[in-house]
Each structure stands twice: as structure tokens, then as C-alpha cells.
């Protein structure tokens, strides 16, 4: 009779895993109660001070019992991410209950739908205005306390120009990824409070906990302050910045990054490698990079074309990048190893301490990417 030397130990591990599942179920139930209280009292779903203090305490407790602090932090961060998603189901306090109706222009689009849902979860009466509904526009605007423009970049200024007269105390906002031109258009079109917003996330986020929303002041900050507070209750972090500075940063953060991803994807398509083989042979970092490239091509090409083509500054930045790329390629053709090392060190000095920070952050991401990797079949 052959005995399984691991059988009993595996049974015990299964028992412990079942206890973990039971404990997680208890925690989720408690989080639901927390969500109801936060909703009742208008408390944000994400409180950074509470999260930091809790994680520090759990790390200390774990390490005192021989459990790695990083392990318990990884587990708890994943649990908390699920908790934030659960808390939003309880709804949110209405910061400005006396507000008129919220009108979201383009509210049937993916990002518009996200904000429609968040406003409705917060107790506001929300109307959606689409291209075929403009005969209703004046009636909807007459009772509006907030009008949000959520349309493609190339249509934003045109839509703002045709808004007509809004109530003087109505807040006019847009959620476009460029800010200066739309903000100026809103200031021209409306004499009341105006704010430019840029959600730094896509419509597929499960909740707004820890998500950044850029805020570019237009006019009447005291009158739209309630909107910022409402978004903070949703869990968002508000980042105030000048509209021109925002657009300059987006040239690098969005336009250049999306373009280089597009070009790399186009290069792969022309080279036509076996994608599955690339995945099988990849290191965690390449797998993550390939996933980010593939992610782009699973989305709407019009959106990315509009982002890249939104500004002549974007094109100029891409041209400068292309020139530097070719300069680096020429250096390699000359087999100038010393020049490569010198250039590498110059860039390293520019990054400074951020290099170490990014190294640690990337390690965590790579560990997660490797954890998600699955192998099937027999390996030689």
C-alpha cells in the first residue's frame, strides 16, 4: 500500500484555506455595514490615514508571528480593493440635496455612463442628453444645477458653443482629457461657475477609490466646491492644476505614451511573431509590457486618435521623440558602448531617487503579474 506523505498536510492546508474563506466572508459582511454608515453620514469610502495606520499595525502583528509583512500587506490591499467596490453598493450621501437636475451630455457613452451611475448612487436626479435629444435641451437645462459635457475631444468645443443659456448658478463642467481649450470655451459660453475635470482613469474601473480626478479652476470655485466634495466621498483624489500645465503634462502622460504603444503594436503586427510563444518565453516584465500594448488595441481607436491629434504640441513632442530614438539607434550602429553607458548614466542621474522608488513599485507589479501566470500541460 502506497501512502501519500503529503496527504495529511494537504488536508490541514485545505482546512486553513476554508477558515480563510470564512473569515473573508465575515469581513465582507462587516464592510457592508461600514458602507451603510458611511453612506448615512457622508463619509468617503477611502480614508488614506486609516488605511496607512491599519496596514502598519497588521504588518507589525504579522512580523511578530513570523509572517512576512509584505505578505500580509499584499493580502490586505487586495481585500481592501474588494471592500471599496462593495462599499459603493450602499450609495453615497447627497452633498447638495437642493441641487437641480444633473444633465450629462454624452451620458450614454462609457465614461458618461460611469458618472451618471455615480450621481444616481448619490441621490441626484440625472438626465442624459445625446445627439438626437437636442430638441429637449432647453427644457433640461432650465432645471439644471449641473451640466457635465462628456463627448469626444473633437466635439467638445462645438457642443459647449451650442449649449445656449444655462441658469446663472448652474455649474458647467467637462470631463475631457484636454483642458485649456474646453475651459476657455465654457467660460465664454456660460457666465456662472465653470470647472474643467479630467478623470485619470477609464470607464472600466470598479469604483473611484484612490482614482485621481484633475481639477482646473474656471470660475466660481466656492459654487462648485460641493462637486469636488461629492467626488471625494466617492473615494476620488482631487488634484488641482492650471489648465495649460495639465495639457503640457498630458502630452507626455497620454499622447506620447499612447503613440509609442501604438507604434510598438504596429511593429509586432508587421513582424508577425507567435504571440503565445512570446508569452511562454516572456519574463514577468515583458509579459506586463505586452499586456499593456495589447490592452490598447482592445479599445476604441477613435478615442486614442483624438487624444494624440488633440494638439500640435503632441505632434511636435512625438517628432522630438522620433529624433532621439534615431539618435540612439545610430549610436548602436556605431557600436558606441561608452556613449550608451554615458547616456544611460545621465538619464539615471535625472531620475534621481525616483529610480529606486520605481524599482520597488515595479517589483510589486511584476510579482503580481507572475502570480497570475498559469501553466498547463507537461513541461520538459
From TrEMBL:
A GO CC annotation given for this chain: cytoplasm
Catalytic activity: chorismate = prephenate; prephenate + NAD(+) = 3-(4-hydroxyphenyl)pyruvate + CO2 + NADH
Keyword list, A-Z: Amino-acid biosynthesis, Aromatic amino acid biosynthesis, Cytoplasm, Isomerase, Multifunctional enzyme, NAD, Oxidoreductase, Tyrosine biosynthesis
Superkingdom classification of source: Bacteria
Pfam families: CM_2, PDH_C, PDH_N
Prephenate/arogenate dehydrogenase domain boundaries: 100-362
Pathway noted in the entry: Metabolic intermediate biosynthesis; prephenate biosynthesis; prephenate from chorismate: step 1/1; Amino-acid biosynthesis; L-tyrosine biosynthesis; (4-hydroxyphenyl)pyruvate from prephenate (NAD(+) route): step 1/1
Cellular compartments annotated: Cytoplasm
Entry keyword annotation includes Acetylation: no
Any one GO molecular function term: chorismate mutase activity
Domain Chorismate mutase as annotated: residue spans: 1-91
GO BP: chorismate metabolic process; tyrosine biosynthetic process
Family: In the C-terminal section; belongs to the prephenate/arogenate dehydrogenase family.
PANTHER family registered for this protein in UniProt: PREPHENATE DEHYDROGENASE, PREPHENATE DEHYDROGENASE [NADP(+)]
Protein name: T-protein
Organism: Moritella marina ATCC 15381
High-level lineage: Bacteria, Pseudomonadati, Pseudomonadota, Gammaproteobacteria, Alteromonadales
Amino acid at each position: 500500500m502506497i501512502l501519500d506523505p503529503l496527504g495529511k498536510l494537504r488536508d490541514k492546508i485545505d482546512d486553513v484555506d476554508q477558515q480563510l474563506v470564512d473569515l473573508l466572508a465575515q469581513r465582507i459582511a462587516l464592510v457592508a455595514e461600514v458602507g451603510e454608515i458611511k453612506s448615512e453620514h457622508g463619509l468617503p469610502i477611502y480614508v488614506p490615514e486609516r488605511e496607512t495606520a491599519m496596514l502598519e499595525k497588521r504588518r507589525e502583528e504579522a512580523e511578530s508571528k513570523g509572517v512576512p509583512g509584505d505578505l500580509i500587506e499584499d493580502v490586505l490591499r487586495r481585500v481592501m480593493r474588494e471592500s471599496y467596490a462593495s462599499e459603493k453598493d450602499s450609495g453615497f450621501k447627497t452633498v447638495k440635496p437642493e441641487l437641480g437636475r444633473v444633465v450629462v451630455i454624452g451620458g450614454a457613452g462609457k465614461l458618461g455612463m460611469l458618472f451618471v451611475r455615480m450621481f444616481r448612487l448619490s441621490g441626484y436626479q440625472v438626465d442624459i442628453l445625446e445627439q438626437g435629444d437636442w430638441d429637449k435641451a432647453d427644457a433640461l437645462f432650465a432645471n439644471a444645477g449641473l451640466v457635465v459635457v462628456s463627448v469626444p475631444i473633437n466635439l467638445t468645443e462645438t457642443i459647449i458653443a451650442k449649449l445656449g443659456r444655462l441658469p446663472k448658478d448652474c455649474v458647467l463642467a467637462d470631463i475631457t482629457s484636454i483642458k485649456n481649450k474646453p475651459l476657455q470655451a465654457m467660460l465664454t459660453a456660460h457666465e456662472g461657475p465653470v470647472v474643467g475635470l479630467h478623470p485619470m482613469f477609464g470607464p472600466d474601473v470598479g469604483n473611484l477609490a484612490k482614482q485621481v480626478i484633475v481639477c482646473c479652476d474656471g470660475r466660481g470655485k466656492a459654487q462648485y466646491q460641493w462637486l469636488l466634495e461629492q467626488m471625494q466621498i466617492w473615494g476620488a483624489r482631487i488634484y488641482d492644476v492650471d489648465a495649460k500645465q495639465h495639457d503640457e503634462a498630458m502630452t507626455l502622460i497620454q499622447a506620447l505614451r499612447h503613440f509609442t504603444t501604438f507604434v510598438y503594436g504596429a511593429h509586432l503586427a508587421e513582424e508577425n511573431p507567435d504571440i503565445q510563444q512570446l508569452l511562454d518565453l516572456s519574463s514577468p516584465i515583458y509579459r506586463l509590457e505586452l499586456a499593456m500594448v495589447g490592452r490598447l488595441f482592445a479599445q476604441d481607436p477613435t478615442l486614442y486618435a483624438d487624444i494624440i491629434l488633440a494638439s500640435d504640441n503632441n505632434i511636435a513632442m512625438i517628432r522630438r521623440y522620433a529624433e532621439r530614438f534615431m539618435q540612439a539607434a545610430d549610436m548602436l550602429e556605431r557600436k558606441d558602448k561608452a556613449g550608451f553607458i554615458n547616456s544611460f548614466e545621465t538619464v539615471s542621474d535625472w531620475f534621481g531617487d525616483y529610480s529606486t522608488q520605481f524599482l520597488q513599485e515595479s517589483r510589486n507589479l511584476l510579482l503580481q503579474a507572475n502570480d497570475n501566470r498559469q501553466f498547463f500541460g507537461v513541461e520538459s
